[in-house]
Structure formats: C-alpha cells, structure tokens
Design brief:
226 residues, mainly alpha, Catalytic domain of cyclic nucleotide phosphodiesterase 4b2b, 63% helix, disordered N terminus
C-alpha cells in the first residue's frame, strides 16, 4: 500500500499554482460535486490519489495549475464544470503507463461521479475528456470542452518553471535508463513541435504558444546534443 502525504506537502520543488491556490482547490470540490457524504468521500479519495509519494510532476501542484488554467479559458467551454471535473480525474490514476493511466482514470470517473449525483450525460462527458488527455492531438475542431482541458493540461509548457517541470518528469521515470529516456522524451518533444499549433483556444495560444515552443526546442536540443 502506498503511503499518502497531505495535499500540498512540501516534499520537493514544485511548478504550478501557488500553495494558496492549492488550498482553494480543496474548497472548490463541493461546488463541483456537492457536499453529500459520498461526494466528500470521493473528494478525499482524489486528494489522496493526487498526493501519492511516487508522483513528482503529476501531483497536487499540477492539478491546481490545470484548474487555474481552466479558469482562464472557462468562457470558451460548453460545459466548464465538466472540464473542471475532468481535470480532477485526468491523472487520478497515475502509474507512468501512457494510455492505460488515462483509461483507468476515465473508468474511475465513471465509477465515482454517479455516487455524487452528477448527471449521466455529464459523467459521460467527463470520462470522454479524460480519455482525450492520452493524446492531445485527437481534439476535434468543434470540441470546446476538449480544447480547454487539453490547453490547460499543456499550459505548463509555456509557463515559468519549465526546467523544474522537465526535471520532475525525469524523476517520475527514474527507473528508465538515461539513453532510453532521452530517446523517448525527444520523440515526444519533436512530435509536439511538429504540430501546427500546440494550443487550440485563441487565448491559450496568446498566453503560452511562443514560450512553449521555445521551451520545447531548448529541451530537445539538450537531449539530442549530449
């Protein structure tokens, strides 16, 4: 069994929303899911999952940062609360297995949200959005909810603290040898840079596109020249 630590525990340097915003994250859960005993239990489970000690980047700071970015883009979304719920669940299961983690997280949403009284249609939308985060390039042009969630999830690429983010990603894959990690990470970065636009919302592009491309290019150069 994994030992859980409190949400926001200062275990290491973090990148993302400040501590006061992370505290607001806790307070905002009832506004999304209700304040029933079942909703409180689901909220407690999610906070424990996000605070698992094996996480280095996909942690409470990341959750808070994604929610902060959703707030910046919320007026674009057709259902902002569905996007916020998807943010809570999008890395709720995290074992470093791309695709599998997102699928398990979506299944968790489908299992837990009905207990909170969330309508069936919104539960389905939340699960769909969580699955989208497995590959951000699958967002359709008319999918405003998907655009907001994926832009929020990738906002870290264009914000200050990118080097801390990259170091924490490496720490999550500490079991992978340096050469294999560098090869796989370089492929991910090159694929991102090859996309015509990293962000699907106009506001996301204005806020993060230029700096994100500079950050990705710099990291890719480091990986391929050492």
């Amino acid at each position: 069994m994994r030992e859980h630590v409190p949400l926001g525990a200062p275990a290491r340097e973090r990148v993302g929303a400040p501590p006061e915003y992370r505290e607001r994250v806790i307070d905002d859960w009832p506004a999304l899911a209700g304040d029933s005993p079942a909703a409180r239990a689901v909220g407690a489970e999610l906070r424990a999952r996000w605070a698992e000690p094996h996480r280095r980047y996909h942690d409470p700071a990341h959750l808070a940062a994604v929610l902060a970015a959703v707030d910046l883009l919320a007026d674009v979304a057709a259902d902002p609360d569905a996007v916020r719920l998807a943010a809570w669940f999008h890395d709720a299961v995290y074992d470093g297995r791309p695709g599998w983690d997102e699928e398990r997280s979506a299944q968790l949403a489908q299992s837990r949200l009905p207990r909170c009284g969330v309508p069936v249609a919104r539960v389905a939308e939340v699960a769909r959005l969580v699955r989208l985060t497995a590959a951000h390039d699958r967002v359709a042009e008319d999918d405003s909810n998907g655009a907001v969630l994926c832009d929020a999830d990738l906002s870290v690429l264009g914000r200050p603290g990118y080097d801390v983010y990259a170091a924490n990603i490496r720490a999550e894959y500490a079991h992978v040898p340096d050469d294999l990690f560098a090869k796989g990470r370089a492929e991910v970065l090159a694929r991102l840079l090859a996309t015509p636009r990293l962000y699907r919302t106009e506001r996301g592009r204005d806020l993060w596109e230029s700096r994100a491309r500079a950050n990705l290019t710099a990291e890719l150069d480091r990986l391929t020249t050492t």
